[in-house]
């Protein structure tokens, strides 16, 4: 009997229920056989990581790489360093990654990895020693045409640099084996911004479609959770497009802007705070955030505290919007919610959003992470292409390609939802069904062609 894997089981059930609640298997009964095959990883690598802290004491952590599916290309997905990391979380993330990567239109399979190592409170030297110990084993299993990891929670530019240096040392090979690299050693412009920017580009298409081209982000109030890379750049892009960002958060609480919304310079101060691995509440003693313009609520998420809001962007972690919070967002007049985090909404929350969508064309419209946040991995794919060509594209070229990928992803989700929908409603098409079905069909057709099932 398999161990309990609640996060993976949630991702599996969510995908399967979507496929079953559509016309897919009526129109394509041959693809049903793919479900039990695609839901088992091709390979799981689990290993110990032994390193020394600054006191010379031996430390042991668990390392993982879930190589889930390589039908469409090399395994592709991030590395997460966080004490909550376990096999269930990595399997859920890897499973989502398969279909997310398919939606980008690029040649990438799906995988995920990481460790229960916590970089918070560690010195740069300790992080470097851990990264070298971690890569000592992982380097045996990855390569530019095999498996190309990236960063995730706890793995930023510093960690990617140490990991890439370790790989180069162990394998005596410079190759595009990691994405999110520095610009002077193989990285891509717009990669740090890509997930946040892409999320906003996707919602931009949602607003245009729902309003028949009459509305944009201009003047809209936007609640964002998280305060890391994704949340920061999503906030900056919203501000650039004329929206007002009213919240950010971290694991300790949420920070609300009570008047005109956050400014780019305030977002910059928050970015510095997070770069220095500090909590948001540490900003309350600074000149900027002491004022009555801001309110900090300890141990709370934004959703029930922001008041009237037009757009909600969960950008922190999985299951960060509950059923109760979903109902609160509906009551607050929220019309668009899109996940910058992976599986940011619980099943109960998704049920609330989908039920409201069916009631009226003006109902709340929900976009799942596998579609809305695929911009990050899309630009990782563009980084891989630049590495293969030994060239660097301009920021304008990368941003234009990202914008095009997000528009194509949105169009695919809408067209697929309409083609396979069993709904009888005048409401907007289901983006969760469109994303799940489109990603699944592309991967399943590839697996069938390769003989993985027949």
TrEMBL record:
Keyword terms, alphabetized: NAD, NADP, Nucleotide-binding, Oxidoreductase
GO MF terms, alphabetically ordered: glutamate dehydrogenase (NADP+) activity; nucleotide binding
NCBIfam families, sorted: PRK09414.1
InterPro entries, per the entry: Aminoacid_DH-like_N_sf, Glu/Leu/Phe/Val/Trp_DH, Glu/Leu/Phe/Val/Trp_DH_C, Glu/Leu/Phe/Val/Trp_DH_dimer, Glu/Leu/Phe/Val_DH_AS, Glu_DH, Glu_Leu_Phe_Val_DH, NAD(P)-bd_dom_sf
Protein family per UniProt: Belongs to the Glu/Leu/Phe/Val dehydrogenases family.
Subunit note: Homohexamer.
Top-level taxon of the source organism: Eukaryota
Gene Ontology cellular-component annotations: cytosol
Glutamate/phenylalanine/leucine/valine/L-tryptophan dehydrogenase C-terminal domain boundaries: 188-451
Any one GO BP annotation for this protein: glutamate biosynthetic process
The protein's name in its UniProt record: Glutamate dehydrogenase
CDD domains assigned to the protein according to its UniProt record, in alphabetical order: NAD_bind_2_Glu_DH
The species this protein was found in: Tortispora caseinolytica NRRL Y-17796
PROSITE patterns, per database record: GLFV_DEHYDROGENASE
One Pfam family it belongs to: ELFV_dehydrog
Residue numbers binding substrate: 76, 97, 100, 151, 380
UniProt-annotated catalytic positions: 112 (proton donor)
PANTHER family: NADP-SPECIFIC GLUTAMATE DEHYDROGENASE 1-RELATED (PTHR43571)
Site (Important for catalysis): 152
Entry binding sites for NAD(+): 195, 229
């Amino acid at each position: 009997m398999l161990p309990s894997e609640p996060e993976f089981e949630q991702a599996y059930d969510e995908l399967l229920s979507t496929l079953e609640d559509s016309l897919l298997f009526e129109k394509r009964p041959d693809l049903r056989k793919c479900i039990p095959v695609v839901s088992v990883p091709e390979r799981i690598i689990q290993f110990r990581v032994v390193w020394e802290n600054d006191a010379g004491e031996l430390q042991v952590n668990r390392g993982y790489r879930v190589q889930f599916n390589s039908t469409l290309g090399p395994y592709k997905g991030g590395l997460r360093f966080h004490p909550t990391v376990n096999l269930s979380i990595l399997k859920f993330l890897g499973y989502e990654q398969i279909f997310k990567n398919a939606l980008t239109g690029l040649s990438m399979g799906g995988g995920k990895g990481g460790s229960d190592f916590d970089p918070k409170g560690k010195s740069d030297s300790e992080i470097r020693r851990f990264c070298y110990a971690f890569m000592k084993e992982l380097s045996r299993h990855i390569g530019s045409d095999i498996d190309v990891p990236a960063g995730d929670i706890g793995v930023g530019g510093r960690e990617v640099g140490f990991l890439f240096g370790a790989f180069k040392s162990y394998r005596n090979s410079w190759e595009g084996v990691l994405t999110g690299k520095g610009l002077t050693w193989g990285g891509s412009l717009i990669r740090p911004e890509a997930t946040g920017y892409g999320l906003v580009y996707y919602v931009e298409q949602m607003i245009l479609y729902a309003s028949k081209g009459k509305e944009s982000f201009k003047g809209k109030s936007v609640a964002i959770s998280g305060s890391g890379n994704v949340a920061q750049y999503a906030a900056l892009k919203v501000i650039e497009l004329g929206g007002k960002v009213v919240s950010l958060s971290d694991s300790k609480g949420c920070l609300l802007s009570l008047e005109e919304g956050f400014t780019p310079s305030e977002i910059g101060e928050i970015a510095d705070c997070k770069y220095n691995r500090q909590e948001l509440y540490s900003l309350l003693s600074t000149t900027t955030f002491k004022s009555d313009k801001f309110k900090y609520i300890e141990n709370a998420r934004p959703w029930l505290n922001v008041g009237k809001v037009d757009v909600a962007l969960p950008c922190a972690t999985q299951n960060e919007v509950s059923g109760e919070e979903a109902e609160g967002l509906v009551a607050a007049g929220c019309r668009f919610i899109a996940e910058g985090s992976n599986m940011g909404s619980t099943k109960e929350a998704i049920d609330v959003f989908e039920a409201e969508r069916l009631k009226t064309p003006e109902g709340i419209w929900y976009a799942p992470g596998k579609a809305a946040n695929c911009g990050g991995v899309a630009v990782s794919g563009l980084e891989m292409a630049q590495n293969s060509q030994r060239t660097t594209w301009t920021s304008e070229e990368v941003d234009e390609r990202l914008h095009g990928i997000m528009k194509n992803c949105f169009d695919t989700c809408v067209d697929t939802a309409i083609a396979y929908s069993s709904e009888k409603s005048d409401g907007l098409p289901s983006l969760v069904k469109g994303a799940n079905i489109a990603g699944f069909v592309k991967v399943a057709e590839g697996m069938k062609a390769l003989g993985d099932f027949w």
